[in-house]
Design a protein that fits this description.
The complex is a heterodimer of chains A (about 425) and B (about 575).
Chain A (H helix, E strand, L loop, with lengths): L7 H16 L3 H8 L3 E10 L5 E12 L5 E7 L5 H17 L5 E7 L8 H15 L8 E5 L5 H15 L20 H20 L7 E5 L3 H12 L3 E9 L4 E6 L6 H5 L10 H6 L3 E4 L10 E4 L20 E3 L8 H10 L2 E3 L1 H4 L2 H15 L5 H26 L3 H19 L4
Parallel strand pairs in A: 3-4, 3-5, 6-7, 6-10, 10-11, 11-12
Antiparallel strand pairs in A: 1-2, 2-4, 7-8, 8-9
Helix pairs in contact in A: 1-3, 1-14, 3-14, 4-5, 6-7, 6-12, 6-13, 12-13, 13-14
Chain B lengths: L13 E4 L6 H16 L4 E2 L2 E4 L3 E4 L1 H10 L4 H4 L4 H10 L4 H13 L4 E7 L15 E4 L6 H18 L3 H10 L8 E7 L3 E3 L2 E3 L2 E6 L15 E5 L4 H4 L5 E3 L13 H6 L4 E6 L15 E5 H7 L7 E4 L4 E4 L7 E2 L3 H4 L6 H16 L3 E8 L9 E9 L17 E5 L1 E3 L2 E12 L9 H15 L4 E6 L21 E7 L13 H8 L4 E4 L7 H6 L2 E4 L3 E15 L4 E5 L1
Parallel strand pairs in B: 1-4, 3-19, 22-23, 23-24, 24-25
Antiparallel strand pairs in B: 2-3, 4-7, 5-6, 5-7, 8-9, 9-13, 10-11, 10-18, 11-12, 13-14, 15-16, 15-17, 18-19, 20-28, 21-25, 22-27, 26-27, 27-28
Helix pairs in contact in B: 4-6, 5-6
Classes of the chains: A alpha/beta (about 425), B alpha+beta (about 575).
Chain lengths: ~425, ~575
Amino acid sequence: MPKQSYNPFLMAQAQFDKVAESLALEESVRELLRFPLREYHVSIPVRMDDGKVRVFRGFRIQHNDARGPAKGGIRFHPQETVDMVRALSMWMTWKCSVVDIPLGGAKGGVVCDPHNLSLREQEQICRGWVRQLVRDMGPVRDVPAPDVMTNGQHMLWMLDEYETILGGRYPGFITGKPVGLGGSLGRTEATGFGLVFVMREALKELGLRPEATTASVQGFGNVARYAVQLYQRLGGKVLSVACWDQGDQASYTYRKKSGIDLEELVGITDRFGGIDKAKATDLGYEQLPGDAWLEQEVDILIPAALENQIHAGNVEKMSKKVKLVAEGANGPTAPEADQIFAKRGVFLIPDFLANAGGVTCSYFEQVQCNMNYFWEKDEVLGKLDTKMTSAFLAVSELSRRKKLYMRDAAYVIAINRVAQACQERGWV
Amino acid sequence: MRFDRNKLAADSSFAFLGSGEPGGKAAGLAFLQESLGGRFPGGSFRGLPVDIPRMTVLLTGAFEEFIAGNRLRLEELSELSDEQIARHFQKADLPVFLVGDLLALVSQARGPLAVRSSSLLEDALYEPFAGVYSTKMVPNNQPDAEGRFRKLVEAIKLVYASTWFRRSRDYCRATGHALEQERMGVIIQELVGHRFHDRFYPSVSGVARSYNYYPLGACRREDGVAHLALGLGKTIVDGGLSWFCCPAYPRTPPPYNSLRDLAKNTQTRYWAVNLGQPAEYDPTKENEYLVHGDLAEAEAEGSLGALCSTWDPASDRLVMGLSGEGPRILDFSPLLQGGVAPLPELIVELLALAGERAQGEVEIEFALALDPQGNRPARFGFLQVRPMAVRRRAASLEGIPPERILVHSEQVVGGGGIAGIRHVVYVKPGTFAAAATATIAGELAGVNARLGGTPYVLIGFGRWGSADPWLGIPVIWSQISGARAIVEGTLPQMSPEPSQGSHFFHNLSGLGIPYFTVSDPRGIAWSQLERMPAVEDLTYVRHVESPAELRVLVDGSTGQGVIAR
């Protein structure tokens, strides 16, 4: 599918409209939820290391906070667009709602490329972004978190700026902080593990034992690695992983029919998440084209890299053996591919349910920060499992009962909860 | 069946979690569960509900992953004290695939839980490992599921840690097992009992064996023996005072000369789970949530009525039940004679059933919950089954000149002969004091270590291995690991009845170590021992070497035995 035809916000709205219709939502509710409640567009002047001042464009978009303070990551990306941030903020609303945590949805971004910025320059962007938005954010309003190309260090700079301006300690302002500085144990693993918690439940519904299944994974970042780790612990076998090669500016699929060895592959992975081709070959992996992950003879596909990866142009290449698709990435499946899944009877765990482990653990982090009492990892992951499993069961039960496609069932639950909150508050 | 959190409430009386093996204890119960339904249609025996309490088993794969995932290394941790090991384990994380299920489990399970070890080595025939690893009871009564979850997780980690505790390492070394290969399963089991004020306990805990080494009166060895105690079974398995009877002849009077003797030798304290004010927080302690009450407290709690008799000193007779102000004697007579519940008959049935399934002699543990007021239903819980290694081999005791006999007994556990022993380690009757048993245990451990595996005969007073230092010498197995024959003598100040219900006794008999009970003071030739040259002469313990080789001979069919030069 050509890149320019993909507008994520239009896609998010289309998904919403479909469900709104099926829920027969009132027009006023639809109008409210089709667009963000608030958008902030800011300019951040930064004196660069060469002494010149450069102005960066940033956003914070709060889609809806009827169910609680808005929550969402902040992305640093050179191709960031406001429509992408809008779409992601809307998906955050549904994501928080579907796992039933008392938070709304937001997203932020700065148009910049951290690869070309020194740490000092990145720090100035972080602090400048907070200075511009400090009046409209905070633990009871809007809580940011790391996202694309931001990490715990960025969060600490932002927190420090916020606390300096307000003159106090507010660790609940931001999540994704390092452990020991207000971060939660289990946060690193949360999205990947959360994905496998719901996969495990889906396999039960399909009557499959994890140890009798195989999977192919797109992506080899944080989400994919922890998902592979836990899936393998449950007995599953991962036959291939696909990842981006920074040097070649292309993606490749690495396959081993006897099953990949996670530790072995992590050992030959660079800091961008790219696997060393030569070493992989030496270790007995076949190097295949980037799209080949989709064509493997496996039971489970885990797209855990980028949006719009399974579309009309490649969905037919998917093996007939595939029974389950668990979306680790945001929006990896285009609507046309969804139709093929539905036709073939492929069980789908939609992105905003499958990858909600991250935001759920962020919520736990905020709870811990607000009471300044931190839980053991066992407790964090135990609660994460419970939350994710409950969310999955609610969605699958509705899907079964109303004969809905899983994505639609998840949207119905999520949108219904948000619509209800808006109505009960008397907004619409 | 595999654990399924979504079906917990409906039916999960026996569920497995994770991968690997269930371990000896859990396997034994799983084995029996099928038969139980067939033998007790409707789940009851003469109106008394009988079941295996609902349990979830963490398979040994979880332990392996816990160890590997947290990079815990036996060779590093074995330098540390047990408490330090336990703290390391507490800091480690349980495998992620367990925690959600455990949280779901405690979200639905209300009431105290027993978290028991179930290792690969435990409860296998000729691999006696009873009581080597930890069991922890948790009250599971915190108002929030997260609080209950935290306590459960701490208990599981303690059971895991106990795999590497000193006593486990020593026990494995002494019995020729490689601890590195040991894998721990964990049983999470609901406790059978009732709440009495701020305590939770069964009215009766019991250990019954299908083979009785010390039969009385008309009882045959094959009629078995049952040890009964008020409260948790810890009293019995630790070798404390409890009631014992032959379940086939429960009215057979106990072997005491007087009611005073009887009062002295029956249970006076009981163990319960503390549901009240939380005790001092210490997740590394096995007894963190246990309380040790006395009979006056049990009477005030209303749990004693159906279990005891009252000694009327004026008429010097026992009156069944609570009557007047006389001392309470825990003889369980309302139960054994009064027909409050068909307990003796049920024990006979269960021993037969377990014996059939195991195709041999067995030992079982059980608990009975009774409500003296009759407001809450009675319930019998079958807790454990383990095979007994009974050695019936005969050995001829004839033709041994009396002057060469060092020890003679009519009550010996074991069978066959052992030769090649020259050393004897004995507790000196002249300096023995009941108050010094812990010190004596220390002296024995030192001698045992210096002997460095050289086999010896061990002679002392009271119940070997009892956790109660007033009933005997509280050694653990590693402190006497070189003993190849053990003699339990009696002195006026130390003469408890032999106990067959303790874990120590089970392990001893399982290992095939002959155990001589000598109630007749003439049964031990002290003068011969005193004439032997001393290798070491300590305050309480003397180690001698016999000029001539010693022979241990036991006729397993009659229970007679001698140790002779």
